[in-house]
Amino acid sequence: MEKTLRITEIFYSLQGEANTVGLPTVFVRLTGCPLRCVYCDTAYAFNGGEKKTIAEILDQVKQYKTRYITVTGGEPLAQPACIDLLRLLVEEGYQVSLETSGALDVSAVDSRVVKVLDLKTPASGELERNCYDNIEYLNPGDQVKFVIADETDYQWSKDTMEQHRLADRCQILFSPVMGQMPPERLADKILADQLPVRFQIQLHKYLWQDAQGK
């Protein structure tokens, strides 16, 4: 029997964040997430969705003229068949990224997939869910994202980055929580502390004021 995944949506948009920001991308948003971050902007993906076979997902993705695919959620790794989907997308020749909370094991993710690991900061309410063992599986092309809501988050992110020597492993992203951390304040702090990180804002929220493109 062919494996299936519960899908909230498959859509075509500009990548709103990470190091491919601005590139036309197909997003495959899987349903379900074991976390409940207080600032979550995709709670609509917690439940519902539609079961699709991996073949059906691949067929839908092929409708769009782009080589960039992002598998996101929810938390995509909460569905075991996500591992198979990621591998098959890579084998189809796509440049694939995985948006994951980092709370679930990433060791089985195909090494050709770019992992964007969202380490949860104190203000998320899910700090204790971080699985730091995942850091061992990061490749130079991967990214660790810190979503920063306040000064405590910023200091924690800075300390965590240094403690695990993340800048020696992969790219690091610092992103402000819209409406809580003014982007210019976070930018100023990064420059003042000379951090080896990429500042990012969620482009899609400025263009369309919604969650698409994540």
Report on this model:
The chain has 214 residues and is of the alpha/beta class. The protein has one domain (4-208): Aldolase class I (TIM Barrel). The protein is 22% helix and 25% strand. It has 5 helices and 9 strands, in the order E-E-E-H-E-H-E-E-E-H-E-H-E-H. It has a 9-stranded mixed β-sheet. Strand 8 (171-176), helix 4 (183-193) and strand 9 (198-199) form a beta-alpha-beta unit. The longest helix has 13 residues, at 151-163. It is globular and about 55 Å long. The mean pLDDT is 94.
Label this structure with key terms.
214 residues; nine-stranded mixed β-sheet; 5 helices; 9 strands; 22% helix; globular
Sequence-ordered SSE layout with sheet pairings:
Elements: E1 4-14, E2 24-30, E3 50-53, H1 54-61, E4 68-72, H2 82-91, E5 95-100, E6 114-119, E7 143-148, H3 151-163, E8 171-176, H4 183-193, E9 198-199, H5 203-208
Parallel strand pairs: 2-4, 4-5, 5-6, 6-7, 7-8, 8-9
Antiparallel strand pairs: 1-2, 1-3
